[in-house]
Every structure is written in C-alpha cells, then in structure tokens.
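[Q] Does anyone have a clean structure-token version of this?
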Amino acid sequence: MTGGGPGISTQVSLQLITSVGFTDDRIGAASAASVLLFILIIVIAIIRQIVDRAASRKEA
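[A] Here you go.
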C-alpha cells in the first residue's frame, strides 16, 4: 500500500517494541511500551464489552 513509507512510518507497534528491545538494547523502554500496549488493549476490550452490553439491553 504505502511501499514501506519513509523511514519507520509504517512500522507497527509490536515491531517497534521488538526493535527497541533487541536491536537497540533498551529492554526497559521496550518493557514499558509493552505494558502500555497491554493497558491500551485492555481498555479497548472493556469499552467494547460495555458497549455490547448496552446494545443487548436495548434490544431486550
């Protein structure tokens, strides 16, 4: 789609975490980014559950 883009513009977050942790030897920064990604995923999942429950109550 973008042909790779300039630099790391099309790099996904997991690729960035792996690159920072193993290539740049910044394990602490990669760990912190992993925890933030985990928290973001949990927050999105909780919001989705709330929306789905509200929609099912509205239908019933």
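[Q] Thanks! Anything notable?
[A] Residues 13-59 form one domain.
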